[in-house]
């Protein structure tokens, strides 16, 4: 999801986006004064807001100007936007990987690391929105805590603690996910010193306390959406957990129809929404 600034008024942006010849659009526009949200494009459809990344990105435009953030980025707007973002993430079973500003407002950030970041944080962009005045730590806090308007907060998941000396499938899942993030660890299900170092490095890279303990803070950061067509270590993590739960799937790192149907069966058995997509709720059930 991409956070934008309109560089114009709310009403002006809405009429601009309704003009087909303008060649620009976004899924949502939010008003500065009171946080009113207008949906311009259905989420399933592509909007024209972010060049190469249009095909997989939901765009949220915030009324205002990059050069004058204090006048336009109001509490009402932050709260409304955070509620909307949390809702979109939840509806897609995406982890709440919201940029926290730690690398600077204009850093180009890998798509894999953040589900929510600014226009300027996508690769190959000429725009600078939402600019240096967008409060990313505050925004992340509002999205993840659900404290924006007080309504619609998603229940916080509780995760098992996994740490040095532990063994078993949970540890193996952590190790596969570390591999997915580029760390060189063996998925042997034994939490030794190499895994400990990788966990600490991962935590530091995410702005988390680097204590080497994988719990409520680190699990949501570690987990990555996995679905049919995906491949790699995250898929092995899913498949290995499925085997652990008694499903006959190959741990080959290729998320094909067999894995998809096992995931759906697992989701049904655990009372989750059955969509074949391994998001945070499904990872959580695997982890337990
Ligand atoms: Zn933009």
Show the helix and strand layout:
Blueprint: E1 2-5, H1 10-18, E2 28-30, E3 37-39, E4 59-62, H2 69-72, H3 75-91, E5 117-118, H4 136-145, H5 169-180, H6 193-205, H7 218-222, H8 233-244, H9 257-269, H10 280-287
Parallel strand pairs: 1-4, 1-5, 2-4
Antiparallel strand pairs: 2-3
Helix pairs in contact: 3-4, 5-8
Bound molecules: zinc ion (ZN).
Structural summary, described in words:
Helices cover 36% and strands 6% of the residues. With 288 residues, it is mainly α. Strands 3-2-4-1-5 form a five-stranded mixed β-sheet, sandwiched between helices. Strand 2 and strand 3 form a beta hairpin. Helix 3 crosses helix 4 and helix 5 packs antiparallel against helix 8. The longest helix is centred in the N-terminal third of the chain and has 17 residues. The radius of gyration is 20 Å and the shape is globular. Bound molecules: zinc ion (ZN). Zinc ion binds next to loops.
């Amino acid at each position: 999801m991409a956070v934008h600034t309109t560089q114009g008024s709310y009403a002006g942006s809405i009429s601009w986006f309704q003009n087909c010849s303008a060649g620009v659009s976004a899924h949502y526009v939010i008003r500065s004064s009171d946080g009113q949200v207008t949906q311009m494009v259905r989420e399933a459809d592509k909007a024209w807001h972010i060049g190469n990344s249009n095909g997989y990105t939901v765009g949220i435009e915030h009324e205002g100007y990059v050069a004058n953030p204090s006048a336009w980025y109001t509490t009402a707007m932050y709260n409304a936007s955070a509620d909307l973002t949390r809702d979109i993430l939840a509806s897609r079973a995406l982890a709440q990987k919201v940029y926290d500003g730690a690398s600077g407002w204009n850093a180009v950030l890998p798509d894999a690391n953040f589900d929510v970041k600014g226009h300027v944080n996508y690769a190959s962009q000429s725009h600078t929105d939402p600019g240096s005045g967008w409060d990313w730590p505050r925004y992340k806090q509002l999205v993840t805590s659900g404290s924006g308007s007080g309504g619609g907060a998603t229940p916080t998941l509780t995760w098992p603690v996994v740490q040095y000396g532990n063994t078993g499938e949970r540890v193996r899942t952590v190790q596969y996910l570390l591999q997915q993030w580029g760390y060189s660890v063996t998925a042997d299900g034994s939490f030794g010193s190499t895994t400990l170092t990788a966990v600490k490095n991962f935590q530091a890279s995410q702005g988390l306390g680097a204590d080497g303990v994988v719990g409520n803070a680190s699990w949501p950061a570690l987990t990555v959406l996995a679905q049919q067509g995906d491949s790699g270590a995250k898929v092995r993590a899913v498949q290995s957990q499925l085997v652990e739960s008694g499903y006959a799937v190959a741990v080959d790192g290729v998320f094909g129809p067999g894995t998809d149907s096992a995931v759906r069966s697992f989701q049904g058995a655990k009372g989750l929404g059955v969509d074949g997509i391994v998001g945070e709720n499904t990872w959580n059930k695997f982890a337990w």
